[in-house]
Design goal:
Chain A has helices at 3-32, 40-44, 132-139, 147-150, and strands at residues 34-38, 54-60, 66-67, 73-79, 84-90, 102-109, 116-123. With 155 residues, chain A is an alpha+beta fold. In chain A, helix 2 (40-44) links the parallel strand 1 and strand 2. Chain A starts with a helix and ends in a 5-residue tail after the last helix. Classes of the chains: A alpha+beta (155), B alpha+beta (652).
């Protein structure tokens, strides 16, 4: 083969192999670090894999936020208007976290008690705003999208 | 009355930009000098109109004209004057106006500083800038007019600027970031003009380089400012979250970095021309994508504002026109490579190419991680989010390789480098950084960390190796001072910017490895000990600010049992809107920050507190400042101005 062609062939081969490996790696890494979003009703009805990193979200039910006075553990219920999900979290809650407000939690559901153990709690960013995934989770049920509004008292 | 003037000026600006597209392009295709020259005057007109419009909006904010809907929802009569001004770009509409203002500014700058360009090229560049203005002005006028009124009954007071945004960081971050985003419209315009003219020579690359460097300078600073702001203002203690919004600004930075390197090859060797054009198109497209993703409400973040389907459709359409149009033009007109000048594996071309390839791979992984959730959502695969480990997995090793290669680039020669040259120049820096890297963890902390050794080694390699190259170039002269003088400013700028990368890399790695982050329950009188530092919560009491009330904690800090300082973090509650905000107490230092923030009360006399020890965190932004300085030095190089000043002298 002509040396110039040979070089080009190597070059093309290199690109093909390299990009295949790269794409494969990327897809693998992406799969490993994805977390799916579920609404409280889906979690409570058991459609969720246990001990797998997922995301959930809903409105924090007023009056359910309970702090352990001796540690940083806090528990609260989130709801989508259909079911309530118990969430436990150890750490400092974000400023915008509040009763009757939307929140998104990252973590996993434990098999023994079916509660959600959050490693991260995210709250909405202003009064009018609701995270799109929470809004959608609630729209799935009749009147569900109003469930945060109904709970707006206390502030 | 004033808002109507602003609105009217905006409409006039739209007409100016239409004229700016049509007249110079007609002139360029028919060879009419007068029409081509009109581009310059039209740029002045566009800039004046947009400035008037911007001034009107600022006026509405400063005078508390809450009949303007946008002012009513983003300002408040209690705000200090400087926040009233910065509130102008605190929301979607105003930030778009700021964008257009910057665009008009860059267009004006091109009109002023491109006297040395051949007239047809200049006319086409300005026309492309005009085209981008049309898109943004139409977007504003049709979907997000900042001058909309609330009539007949305007609200008595505004609903206030989000307290997170009442900060020096917000005054500076968006304008500087936008300068960067918009700056890449200049290289984009140059690229399109080159495709239209079909002339792509090294002169073209030389015109482009100062513009690309300037844009890169601002983008770098803008990203660093955003990271710094997030660090002290959000109260989480992190400086980078791989949040989609951060990624949106990081993507154009990655491609922009590739672009300024590939421009070098295009200028000096006339190679990679089509690739450079493609990079210019990508960089600007990603800038557009960044602006729109962030401001459109597609993404969940502090930056996002209301959702509006009309806006989404317009944005998608505009992106499609810009990206699709320019790529189609590229396919039709891209220069055909006839006989490629050859270069060897050890050449500078190869090294710059690998820089480009690596940066593009990083860009693609980040883009994929950012857009995948949006795509999955659109295709109904479920609501998905991608975690930071995904990004780190690719970014860190690839960036490490880039850092290792980065030092070889300046040492190498065009076409081919004798491998002995690498050894001769870099053997000592290599050895020195290896020793520093291996020794660092021993002296810095208990417990040897191989990762710390590796990161100090790589960061040190970038810094020491770059200096070593400079040293070897100086030494080849008679005296060192003369050698220093003989090095071009753009070379020195490159060295400074590379050192900046090394500094940031060390900062990022050591901060991630050695940070001590404690979220603890603290009672009054309790002490939290982090290494030599003791934090004692003395008291929590109530204080009142101009537009908020706050719980303030008094924390005394001891260093090795000696009193060091007091720190006073606050938990603020803003009176209008009732927003809660954490005000962090910081003790900044060159080698470490102390960081104390309040959580919430846990019981009667106990609070949740964040007590963090953050080593080398300032290096992260310090490195970015060095990069920006380096870019500035490169722009200031006389080389780019010689051609222009020469004929001027002749005229005198």
């Amino acid at each position: 083969m002509h040396p110039a062609r040979k070089q080009r062939l190597y070059f093309v081969l290199f690109i093909v192999i390299f990009s295949t490996v790269a794409i494969g790696l990327m897809a693998y890494a992406l799969r490993a670090n994805l977390s799916l979003f579920y609404g409280p009703a889906q979690v409570v009805s058991g459609q969720v894999p246990f001990d797998t990193r997922i995301r959930a979200g809903g409105c924090v039910v007023p009056g359910t936020v309970a702090r352990d006075p001796d540690s940083l553990q806090v528990g609260f219920l989130i709801t989508d208007g259909v079911a309530n999900l118990q969430v436990y979290y150890t750490g400092i809650l974000p400023d915008l976290f509040g009763e009757g407000e939307a929140a998104v939690v990252n973590g996993m559901v434990r098999e023994d008690d079916g509660a959600f153990y959050a490693s991260e709690v995210l709250a909405k960013h202003d009064e009018q705003y609701m995270p799109p995934e929470v809004a959608e989770a609630m729209k799935a049920y009749d009147g569900g999208e109003k469930s945060c509004e109904d709970m707006n008292y206390g502030t | 009355m004033v808002p109507e003037v602003g609105h009217f000026a905006l409409i006039l600006a739209l007409f100016f930009s239409f004229a700016l597209v049509v007249l110079p392009l007609l002139g360029a295709s028919s060879g009419n000098r007068l029409l081509m020259l009109s581009g310059r005057s039209l740029s002045y007109g566009l800039f004046v109109m947009v400035s008037i419009s911007f001034a009107c909006l600022v006026y509405a904010f400063v005078t508390d004209d809450f009949s303007v809907a946008y002012a009513a929802s983003h300002s408040n009569s209690l705000l200090p004057i400087y926040y009233k001004v910065s509130a102008v770009w605190g929301g979607h509409e105003g930030s778009l106006l700021l964008w257009v203002m910057m665009l008009a500014g860059w267009t004006l700058a091109i009109a002023i500083f491109s006297g040395s360009l051949p007239l047809p090229v200049q006319a086409r560049v300005l026309a492309v800038m005009g085209f981008i203005s049309i898109g943004f002005l139409l977007f504003m006028l049709l979907t997000s007019n900042p001058f909309d009124r609330v009539l007949p009954i305007p609200p008595a007071d505004g609903s206030d600027l989000n307290p997170l945004l009442q900060d020096i960081g917000l005054i500076l971050h968006p304008p500087i970031l936008y300068m960067g985003y918009v700056g890449f419209s200049a290289t984009f315009a140059f690229a399109i003009a080159a495709l239209l003219t079909g002339k792509l020579d090294s002169a073209w690359a030389r015109w482009c380089r100062p513009w690309a460097n300037t844009a890169w300078l601002f983008l770098t600073l803008g990203i660093a400012l955003g990271s710094w702001w997030a660090y002290y203002e959000l109260g989480w203690g992190g400086w980078w979250f791989w949040d989609p919004v951060e990624n949106a600004s990081f993507l154009p930075w990655l491609v922009g970095t590739a672009l300024i390197h590939s421009l070098a090859v295009s200028e000096k060797r006339g190679l990679f021309k089509s690739w450079t054009i493609l990079l210019a198109i990508f960089t600007f497209s990603l800038s557009l994508l960044g602006t729109f993703l962030v401001r459109s409400g597609v993404l969940t973040s502090v930056h996002a504002f209301a959702n509006d389907p009309d806006r989404g459709v317009f944005i998608l359409g505009f992106l499609l026109v810009v990206v699709g149009g320019s790529l189609a033009l590229f396919a039709l007109r891209a220069p055909v490579v006839k006989n490629a000048p050859s270069f060897k594996w050890t050449s500078r071309e190869t090294l710059l190419l690998s820089n480009n390839v690596l940066l593009m791979i990083i860009m693609i992984t980040v883009l994929l991680g950012t857009l995948y959730p949006l795509i999955a959502d659109a295709l109904n695969w479920g609501k998905i989010s991608v975690g930071p480990p995904y990004f780190n997995l690719f970014f860190i090793p690839l960036m490490g390789i880039i850092c290792v290669l980065m030092v070889l680039g300046p040492v190498s020669n065009w076409k081919r480098t004798d491998p002995k040259r690498f050894v001769r120049v870099l053997a000592k820096p290599w050895a020195l950084s290896l020793v520093v890297g291996l020794l660092f963890p021993i002296f810095y902390a208990e417990g040897y960390s191989w990762l710390a050794a590796l990161s100090v080694f790589i960061g040190g390699w970038v810094i020491i190796g770059s200096l070593g190259d400079m040293w070897s170039k100086m030494r080849s002269n008679k005296s060192l001072r003369q050698g220093y003088r003989q090095l071009g400013l753009s070379y020195k700028g490159m060295i400074v910017a590379h050192i900046g990368i090394g500094v940031t890399a060390i900062g990022v790695c050591l901060n991630s490895l050695y940070s001590d982050l404690r979220d603890v329950r603290m009672e009054v009188g309790q002490v939290v000990q982090i290494e030599d530092w003791g934090f004692r919560l003395e008291d929590v009491y109530r204080v009142e600010g101009p537009n908020y009330i706050a719980d303030e904690a008094l924390v005394t800090v001891k260093h090795k049992d000696r009193f060091y300082r007091e720190m006073k973090p606050q938990k603020r509650r803003y009176l209008s809107g009732g927003n809660i905000m954490t005000e962090v107490a910081l003790d900044p230092g060159l080698f470490r920050d102390l960081y104390v923030a309040m959580g919430e009360p846990v019981s009667e006399n106990a609070w949740a507190m964040r007590v963090h020890f953050k080593p080398f965190v300032r290096w992260i932004w310090g490195g970015a400042v060095l990069m920006a300085i380096g870019a500035g030095m490169a722009v200031a190089d006389r080389r780019y101005r010689r051609r222009k000043s020469a004929p001027k002298k002749a005229a005198v």
